């Protein structure tokens, strides 16, 4: 098939991991006879430096024409002044809103060989396989913001239809998995969470009564996620809770660098990015873990291009390379040989080529 993919490298390790993802997509195209074209565009701090706008109009136009978007990461100390008026992260939020990708799927799978890289006891990691469905275009990220010399506010708003559509995505996923859904909120304190719980309960009662649904408060969820992670299957939650819980969940997988995400909505064009950020502390050293981005490229193949066999092949190649003992620094334990971003990517490409 022919596909156009917009690549948004962004900042820090963003360009390093985005290049890795693109290399793997190119290897897939060659092996399976597809023609992927790439349009590389500016976003984040790089776009602020170039034209003063974290999401240039050309970037939006390119994404809109594309079958899918692969993004590295944005942000960094250069643009983090609390008094700055333009910020890299605004570009990321704006492209999510522009593309209408309200559902951010963050699968958390554990490769058994990485149990030693996790701070959690190995026996608790057995059978961990969950997917967090994070609402991505609403909530406190997008409400009105104010600030003056003495106070500041961020408004958290959810509309009934925004809750309904994200819970529907999660419930359909649950139906195709174990039938278990956990909705996470803070209904003991927040009105938005009480609406969330009400909408969720009604939707489940009318359309998904076959599912086994649990409501959990977010503070308890943060604890249970570490204490009994294998009890979770599909988790659905609002924008900010999903952001925080998935960085926490990455510790089950051994590193933030391992986890991918797919952001989808009503259009075919999805946005695919690792869950981590621009990692300023290791940027430019060529040591970032590319697996989260490469696994995001697999999700791109599956969800936007409907190339399931190709997606499976990428995921299998990551698993095999890890099984072969290949490690970047973040997932290495004593005695492991440490590979660069490039060497890890090459190993995954080589694995794909020989399959
Ligand atoms: P971060 O995710 O960039 O880094 C947190 C820690 O994890 C760091 O120690 C980093 O070195 C490590 N890490 C992250 N990805 C890694 C990888 N692939 N391989 C190895 N180690 C990895 O979070 P932060 O430091 O809090 O934020 C830095 C900047 O990134 C901020 O400006 C933030 O806004 C931005 N950010 C962007 C995104 C995104 O673009 N989607 C996501 C999160 C944070
Ligand atoms: C993520 C990031 C972003 C978010 C930031 C950079 C806006 O943390 O993609 O997880 O909070 O959504
Ligand atoms: Mn985050």
Automatic annotation (TrEMBL):
The record marks 141, 186 as: Important for catalysis. Binds 1 Mg(2+) or Mn(2+) ion per subunit. This is 3-isopropylmalate dehydrogenase. Belongs to the isocitrate and isopropylmalate dehydrogenases family. LeuB type 1 subfamily. Pathway: Amino-acid biosynthesis; L-leucine biosynthesis; L-leucine from 3-methyl-2-oxobutanoate: step 3/4. InterPro entries: IsoCit/isopropylmalate_DH_CS (IPR019818), IsoPropMal-DH-like_dom (IPR024084), Isopropylmalate_DH (IPR004429). Homodimer. Catalyzes the oxidation of 3-carboxy-2-hydroxy-4-methylpentanoate (3-isopropylmalate) to 3-carboxy-4-methyl-2-oxopentanoate. The product decarboxylates to 4-methyl-2 oxopentanoate. It comes from Woeseia oceani. Its cofactor is Mn(2+); Mg(2+).
